[in-house]
Amino acid sequence: MVKPTPPVNSAASVSDQVIKSEMPLRIALLVLPAPLNLSMSLTADTPEMAKQLSVLLPDLHSAKLLETTELVSIKVDDFEANLTATIESIEQGKIVQISTETSSLLMMHSLKAAQNRIHPHAQLAAMQMQSASTALVEKSLTDTCMHKALSQAKRKSDSVSKRFDLPQLNSTEQFDAVCTLIKDLASRTHHRDAASMGPKQATSHYWFTDHHQARVVAINLTNSIKDQSDSAHSADKSCISFIVSQGTGFIAPKSIIDTKRLQFVVCADNQAGLLAELTKIKSKLTTEPGLLLTQMRDNLVSYEKSHSDTAGISRYAITLQASSIEAMLQEITAMGETLPNVMSDNSLTHSSQYRTPAGSYFTAEPLGGADQSGLAFVYPGVGTVYSDMFSQLHRYFPSLYSQLEREGDLKSMFQADAIYHLDPKVTPAMQLGDLAIAGVGSSYLLTQLLVKQFNITPNFALGYSMGEASMWASLGVWNAPHALIEKTKTDPLFTSAISGKLTAVRKAWQLTNSDADIVWNSFVVRSPAASIKALLPEFPHAYLAIVQGDTCVIAGCETQCRELLAQMKKRGIAANRVTAMHTTPAMEEHGNVEQFYNQPLEETLPNDIKFISAASGESTVSNANGGLDSQVVARSIADTFCNTLDFTALVHSAQKQGVKLFVELGADRQNCTLIDKIAKQDRQCGGESTDFPCCTVPVNAKGGDDITTLLKALGQLISHRVPLTAQPLIEGLNREIALSQLQKTTTTKQLKSEPMSNLTLQGEV
């Protein structure tokens, strides 16, 4: 039921009405898709709009609030007056849709929203008006107005997360700007000032706050008041201030797949079946390009259904990815031409897998099926995090970020002040402890994403160096991994023992306080470990820290390391980072490391994951036989931490135990690169793992688009027949389809009916 709003005569009356309000407004705000006209969705001849509403705004649809409460629809023409009329209608128990051509809000009393289990995107707590003459500086005007709004909202000025001063906008621009800021609150997105950032930096990232601190914005709109009298005391400037806080709802996740990021999955038991399915998709794309979104959704629904019953899972799967229909047709053609070679039995001539730069992927030797049990999560060590990492991920997985915020201090977990600093040089210069925290945080996030969002469970887990700590923190073993954040920042183990002043090294070298500071460095060198070990006795303060395929890392006194490299006639790449992990002096701290990581475990531990430590040789630890306890975990980390890391041996050990598919969970893809080199070296030199299949899957890559890299990873896992759900992809496509249909329905309705102003009551203020 749509009723006109009560008229408001002038901006002056608005000022009088709003300033009198001293109590918080407590108004719930929902951002609506711009084309959506709720009054139209209630008419009997548009049931499809109700269906679209159920997809786009499920809380509102299930509450059936539109069927029981009077709806007032207002089209913005005088923003200040429109808002006052809106507040009056809400006080009368009504709900209000206020909109422009590009933005739309649904507003209601917060109690009504709570009673109907509607999660608002934001809460309007205060709105105040202030007028003044030009004798008053504009900043003083906005400060005074904002102070009154804060007083009305019962908030202190230091509770405001961000302040926005928006001068000289017309009513439509004002409303659109306010809606944009509400969307930022609801999507937890912080936008950077374009003038302050470099060309390669992210334009936005997750809006971090201190732990348990809500996001609150103060919005100040200032305008000149036209047509004033000649009186010297007349007011000629006005300000309206809002205090808006985040709500419990989120802007719907962006769809991972859309018209610019296409994906199809082709499943069959043989080559002929795969080719036939490719032909079907090609035909549909050619004859019905307008149904692209529906075709992709139906394709994934079919895939999901076929995998709900393990007996119905096809032997092979192709994932096709492209950026447009034209590009997808090319991907299908290329895949069809290459498929016979990939499936050929002549492995010496043809590879068993095929991938394209766009992300299309097929393997004739699936390695991750339930019968294979060969999937491992691999966790990288310190130093892989990079500036602006994961900057867009929150827009696609808002519920995941919300979960992480409830669990602990997300800002500290990501070391956000350094990772998202406007100066990109800050991240590489982070201290060892801060790098360790951010590394574990990035691994924890990506693990939760795969496990909670896509239902992917590994059979094995292993870590590179401090990646072992990430492994225990991310896979449901430690009860409170967030408790280690502050300890890592302050404990002498990380601040001074094996980093900083290197007290553990000074003790091992028997240096006194009067001896000079140690100049420490580490170098990556292309060399077999044996060649380095043979020379180490000549350089007692240089150490073989890491063995990783065809390269090694030496660390220690910079002078002795450079002398060792010179004697080997090798060039080394300096890391320029001070850490004595994996060197003999670290053994001085073995007990402290063990104590540091002796953390309480979860009451219920994972029984289906085998954990492989670099220090455990060719054995695994799992809870299936009660092998997990806090002491076992702590000792394994300490042993790895304080001894040379032989990553090559760790990979070989994992392969012998059944690992075939290595999925890297962390920032960038350094472990995947190393494992690929180890596998290549084995094939060329007849190494230990020559007979073991091996494939790597990076979930993130520095310099790449976060979502595109994730989608490529999912495509690989699907082709390797790893059990997973495509539901997040399907749900995203459902929203894309509903929004597309809504736009078409609204346009058609406008063309067939009277002007929209009859429904939105344009000018009725």
Topology:
Elements (H helix, E strand, L loop, with lengths): L10 H9 L7 E5 L6 H4 L5 H10 L1 H6 L1 H4 L2 E5 L3 H13 L3 E5 L4 E6 H6 L6 E11 L5 H16 L8 E6 L3 H17 L1 E3 L12 E3 L9 E9 L12 E10 L15 E7 L2 H17 L4 H15 L9 E7 L2 H18 L10 E3 L5 E3 L11 E5 L13 H4 L1 H10 L2 H4 L2 H4 L12 H23 L5 E4 L3 H8 L8 H8 L1 H6 L5 H6 L11 E6 L3 H7 L6 E7 L2 E7 H11 L3 E3 L15 H7 L13 E3 L17 H13 L2 E2 H10 L4 E4 L5 H16 L9 E4 L7 H14 L7 H26 L4 H4 L5
Helix pairs in contact: 3-29, 10-12, 11-29, 17-18, 17-19, 24-25
Q: What would your notes on this structure say?
A:
With 765 residues, the protein is of the alpha/beta class. The chain has four domains: 11-192 and 213-252 and 740-760, no CATH class; 262-365, no CATH class; 375-496 and 587-719, Malonyl-Coenzyme A Acyl Carrier Protein, domain 2 (3-Layer(aba) Sandwich), CATH 3.40.366; 516-579, 2-Layer Sandwich (Alpha-Beta Plaits). Helices cover 41% and strands 17% of the residues. The protein is built from 30 helices and 24 strands. The strands form five sheets. Strands 2-3-4-1-5-10-9-6 form an eight-stranded mixed β-sheet, with helices on both faces. The protein has a five-stranded parallel β-sheet with strand order 21-16-15-23-24, with helices on both faces. The chain has a five-stranded mixed β-sheet with strand order 20-17-19-18-22. Helix 6 (79-91) links the parallel strand 2 (71-75) and strand 3 (95-99). Helix 3 packs antiparallel against helix 29 and helix 17 (432-454) packs parallel to helix 18 (467-474). This is Omega-3 polyunsaturated fatty acid synthase PfaB. GO terms for molecular function: transferase activity. Residues 378-704 form the Malonyl-CoA:ACP transacylase (MAT) domain. InterPro entries: Ac_transferase_dom_sf, Acyl_transferase_dom, Acyl_Trfase/lysoPLipase, Omega3_polyunsat_FA_synth-like, PKS-FAS_Synthase. It comes from Shewanella sediminis (strain HAW-EB3).
